[in-house]
Amino acid sequence: MEYYIGVDGGASKTHFALCDESGRVAAEHFSSGTSYIELGVSPVLEKLKEGIDALCAGIDRERVAGVCFGMPCYGEQPARDAEAAGEILSAFAPLPVCFKNDVALACAGALALESGIAILAGTGSMAWGRDRYGADKRCGGWPEFFSDEGSGYWLGRRTLEMFSKQSDGRLPRGKLYEIVRERFGLKNDFGIIDKLDEMGYTRKNIAALQPLLMEAALAGDECALRLYDEAAHELALLAKGLRENIELEPYSPLSYSGGLWGAGELLLGPFREAVSGLDMTFMKPALPPVLGAVLLAAEHFDPDALPDIKKGLL
């Protein structure tokens, strides 16, 4: 029995999965983030070692036919990526390891490795696609300083913007204003500045404010509802931009991945409407990103095993 390991790395959390050649998930493990850009390579190596040791506790490691590690931002800084990948390969030799951008995993899982487009919306945002020839294409994923539209970070920042406008009277005060005041325990609205300084202006922390926006939207706050419409529009632009630059069969699948879609119809509704004119077929994600990594590991190291693994996972 051969095994394949998928590692869905992220800035805040990492998901490991061990799958056998029949497509049965034999073990899973979770840890904190594994972004070498934020943490350095040594801490990432420790977390990878811990996760892979946990997965392989009951099997012979020599039976692991391949590992796919989805690294945050992989491919954007080639020289640094190559150095980090080299250290990881050396540390885990002779275990066969390949590397992908973590968004490629999300796309592979959502589309079950078929050609099409997946829209990632989590802390960040990006469109990722696989063309009719199996090549990867992307759109978006630019730095949050000037882009990252429609992401959790973008919505968290806009939540603070709406709060300040409602506080000033530049916008009518609604449920969002009350929810933010309650969340931060504010007696004076300007007290939010100290609260944010204490919390830290990291992407993760700002994105974590998005649930406050969702609570306000579900309570009918018009500003909050409008922000989800804007986010859906920006995510639809990613899909449309990529569709213009990728070769696909007509009505290929368009799917999605990432925690922000947990907002449900607040985001999905306006997104579906915004992409309705594309010659694509909207579908729910077939598999989570970590199992997309399993499929990519099999595709890279043992393509003959891929059909049975895919059939079993689906």
Structure description:
The model has no long low-confidence stretch (mean pLDDT 95). β7 and β8 form a beta hairpin. Helices cover 46% and strands 19% of the residues. 47% of the residues are buried. It has a 5-stranded mixed beta sheet with strand order 3-2-1-4-5. A 5-stranded mixed beta sheet has the order 8-7-6-9-10, with helices on both faces. It contains 13 helices and 10 strands. The chain is of the alpha/beta class and 314 residues long. The protein folds into 2 domains: 136 residues, Nucleotidyltransferase, domain 5, CATH 3.30.420; 171 residues, ATPase, nucleotide binding domain (Nucleotidyltransferase, domain 5), CATH 3.30.420.
